[in-house]
Automatic annotation (TrEMBL):
Belongs to the NtaA/SnaA/DszA monooxygenase family. InterPro entries: Diverse_substr_monoxygenases, Luciferase-like_dom, Luciferase-like_sf, NTA_MOA. Pfam families: Bac_luciferase. PANTHER family: ALKANESULFONATE MONOOXYGENASE-RELATED, C2H2 FINGER DOMAIN TRANSCRIPTION FACTOR (EUROFUNG)-RELATED. Residues 39-388 form the Luciferase-like domain. It comes from Mycolicibacterium iranicum (Mycobacterium iranicum). Its EC number is 1.14.-.-. It is an enzyme of class 1 (oxidoreductase). GO terms for molecular function: monooxygenase activity. This is NtaA/DmoA family FMN-dependent monooxygenase. Keywords: Flavoprotein, FMN, Monooxygenase, Oxidoreductase.
Amino acid sequence: MPGPRDQGLILNLNLLPGGTAKGSWRLDDRDPSWFVSHHHYIEAAQLAERGKFQAVFLADTPAWDDAYWHHPWRAMTPFIALTAIAARTERVGLIGTASTSYNDPYNLARQVSSLDFVSDGRAAWNYVVTAGDRPARNFSARQAVPKDERYARAEEFLDAVIALWEAWEPDPIAGDRATGDYLRPGALRPAAFEGERIQVAGEPLVPPSPQGRPLLVQAGASERGIALAARTADAVYTHQTELADGITYRNLLRGKAAAAGRDPDTMKLLPGFFVVIGDTEAAARERHHQLTEATPDATRLSFFARQLGIPVSEFHMDRPLPFDLIAKSEISRSAASELDGLLDAAARDNLTAGQVLALRRNGTQHVSVIGTPEQVAHTITEWYLAGAADGFNLHVASSPSVLSDFVEHVVPLLQAGGVFHDDYEGTTLREHYGLAPHRLGTGLLTR
């Protein structure tokens, strides 16, 4: 368990366009197009770097959603946006999402390692398994393949990407002008991966960064997702909302990592953390109310329906949730760790969709604090010192306004409390996470 002067708390910023509150853009006087631009992401990342955050995280949605008519969305592919951020920052880590369902291991490995190379070792790949028929139709398929098949592909995909990254030896460039050898002999060998679904036989093109290879981040909560995280992930995003549940889940993941032959300390667990800040708790609640009122019910309902993988037309504000459709939805299971508690309450109390949304006023099921900087810092510190989290993936209600308040008022409290570092001690994301540089050639996976 971390000690009272352990400054190893990790803070990631989730780069949500405009913030978690979908209507926050309406309360900002800038050109609304700002919120889908790379300039918005750069601004947020620079704020995070000023606050000494270890990383920023950009998720991806590979399909249009009708809710996007009403709020900003993640328009760019993450690794393009993160490259723009890399050019305008110096230390903060860069975590991007890409799907194992609709990519090729060779191209994906090259994209991620390219970001890692140009950022001098600050990159990570958040690997996801994509469900839903709408994304599938963007990739020459009529419908998504069954969940078990998606995970079978993901397992091979991860092994193939890692085989490509591990094909390099450390310090491969000799640059011997006398002999003409640019690479050291034996510095690169073909990646040979042969699976049932994926085959890779070739040399990667991008040489390794100072951190060895990019980090791997994962958020799946299904049984197979947890097993894959235990075997491969350097960091795991989780969705527990109660401290005791956080301790239980972190111990579960660490135990599974140990069973997979890993040191549990090499895997960091980062629950989501939703925050609204005010000088007083009443001021924070009023700020939250304004942000909520700026988000139409139709927008929040559409977002909720998307998470459940059910057409929004099946929901009615004055009727109970369509549990028959929810039971059949694969996406509802992929979001299970975030939504199960809410769905259980809805079923138990026969709540209407409107009542469910009222329970979920912050639009997310994460650790939540709507209050003063002291209250926010207390909750973060309590979870960290109790061993319920290695850090948090921060969801600010409004960006940049709430984010700026967090950096200016919460970070100094965490530093004064001895749980968060005063400055970056290294340059790579592995160093920021308290992980040793990865020694290439030692990380090939076994199943």
